[in-house]
Amino acid sequence: MISLQNVTRYYESGERTVRALDGVSLAIARHEFVAVAGPSGCGKSTLMHLIAGLDRPTAGEIMVDGLRLTTAGDAALTNFRRHQLGLVFQFFNLLPTMSVRENVSLPLLLQGVPLPECEARAGELLRLVGLTERAGHFIHQLSGGEQQRTAIARALVHKPSLLIADEPTGNLDTASAARVLDLLREIAEEKLATLILVTHSVEVAAQATRLVEMRDGKVVSDVTQASSLTSRAGILPAA
After folding, report:
1. Domain positions in the chain
2. Is the pTM of this model over 0.85?
3. How many CA atoms lie within 13 A of 191 on its CB side?
4. Which residues pair with 18 in a beta bridge?
5. What would the 3-class secondary structure string for 167-189 be?
6. What is the pLDDT along the chain (239 residues), one digit of tens a residue?
7. Edge-to-edge strand order for the sheet containing 194-199?
8. What is the DSSP-derived secondary structure letter of residue 71?
């Protein structure tokens, strides 16, 4: 589903050239659950932005689900992000002036889906992440874990083929982090999307079935891990 061929991303910082990514080649199959791990500054966030079509490489080729991101125009990239991509950010990026239900409905509204269908789909996702009773609340009324679960519901509501979670437990307490990781494992197990988990945490990375480690803009290790997925049927909808 995802193919990177000799991808580099350089930035100019004064008289210095920063090599955020340096010749990365990577292939990810459909419905894989991949953790991209490494210390701060290793290039994992740059990699995420490139796969998400939020940035373009200095050199190399990137294909995602049949779309060549390196040459795609702005309209094609917008369509890709709107229909095929779900993003879960470390700092949630929820809209404070909207309710939980409205935040989750937003991707469908942007696609022009009728409001009753948006609300029905949002309600289904909120039920499945355990936030039905919070649907009418505003973001500031939620705990950190509830906000992250809202963000996951929003990222899934349009049934994306690719879900990228950037440090999804970085600002959560232990109990909330465990709940979020449970949800991500269930997403992977139910094959709702190809899942890429970006993290600096060894414990979080251990949840994935494949671990790609990065250092200094390069992939230094790429291994298959023993599956940690556990079945909890009925929590997430079928693909």
Report:
1. 85-159
2. yes
3. 5
4. 11
5. CCCCCCCHHHHHHHHHHHHHHHH
6. 999 999 999 988 888 888 999 999 999 999 999 999 999 889 999 999 999 999 999 999 999 999 999 999 999 999 999 899 999 988 889 999 999 999 999 999 988 999 999 999 999 999 888 899 999 999 999 999 999 999 999 999 999 999 999 988 888 888 888 888 888 888 888 888 899 999 988 888 988 999 999 999 999 999 998 755 443 333 343 33
7. 85-88, 162-166, 194-199, 33-37, 210-215, 218-224
8. T
CB 234 within 8 A of CB 227: no
Residues 6+ apart with CB under 8 A from 79: none
Asked if residue 37 lies in contact with residue 205, where contact means CB atoms within 8 angstroms, the answer is yes
Number of neighbours of residue 21 by Cβ within 10 angstroms: 25
Residues in the chain: 239
Query: Which parts of the chain fold into alpha helices (H)?
Result: 44-51, 74-83, 100-110, 115-128, 144-156, 174-189, 202-205
Q: Residue 82 corresponds to which amino acid?
A: R
Main-chain phi, psi angles of 22, to 5 degrees: -135, 85
Amino acid, res. 155: A
